[in-house]
Write a structure and sequence with these properties.
DNA polymerase, domain 1; 2 domains; Rossmann fold
Amino acid sequence: MTGRAAPPVHLVDASCYVFRAWFAVSAEMTDPDGAPVNALYGFVRFLGDLLEQERPSHMAVAFDESLSRSFRSGIDPAYKANREPAPPELRRQFELCREACRRFGLATFSSAQYEADDIIGTLATRLRPHGHRAVVVTRDKDLAQLIREGDAFLDWSAERRLGYADIEGHFGVRPERMADFLALAGDASDNIRGVPGIGPRTAAALLSTFASLEEIYAGLTEVARLPIRGAAQLPERLRAHREDAWRARRLTTIACDMPLDVAPDDVARRAPDLTALDDLYDRAGFGAALRRQAARIEKGDAALFRAEKGKRPLL
């Protein structure tokens, strides 16, 4: 290392933005063969805007493969069982979105056993010793638990960037306590029940006094005396649902140690392949605007990487 700080690595939660595009862009947008390309179009627009405005030198995009095969389904079969499987029209577009990422020169990752959240958590953990801080690009509050000093939580759609010190004010708890918060309050979107009778306000209040689920259960007598509405009943609720709480935390904790060998060079951006992007856009029936943006990105990358040459630390 030269002593200079390594550039941040942008870690993108792809599913979040593919699904957003699927619902936000009209399904009437189709390719020349009549197949929907609305999710692809929205995702590529998001990706192009992100690259053009952020100009990251290191970036990785994490995709989900199969929620039913996630290790969390082995912990609780009800986990995410409330979600309908993606229709074939969307599954096809997920593959096209992965192709678009590769054409843009981006590293992509997926796993049959682990979710995109776990990939992002593991990448952030593996790259920190090399000096890289993480910019986690997502709308999913679960991923706030990964944020540490120097990192950022970037909700691109809402134009919101949160640093470590901002997380508690926005989500109610410090990053390190987010998994415990979700275990107590539950997470309806993931079909995680939590502890009945404990909602987000109560969970946040408990975790403003206690640092973890372990401390809460070790201090149940003190819990009853807290200035929280219904505090006297909380110890009994927590005792009755102890197993539920611990199971829920196993579900809400992001795995940052999945078997994934990665080095900084593995997530260094490559120049966009404009010819391959043109081919993808031709197949999708997209017009000139996205092509012009890709050309601007390719031109900007050349300037960016010339400026960085000689300044980047030896990793």
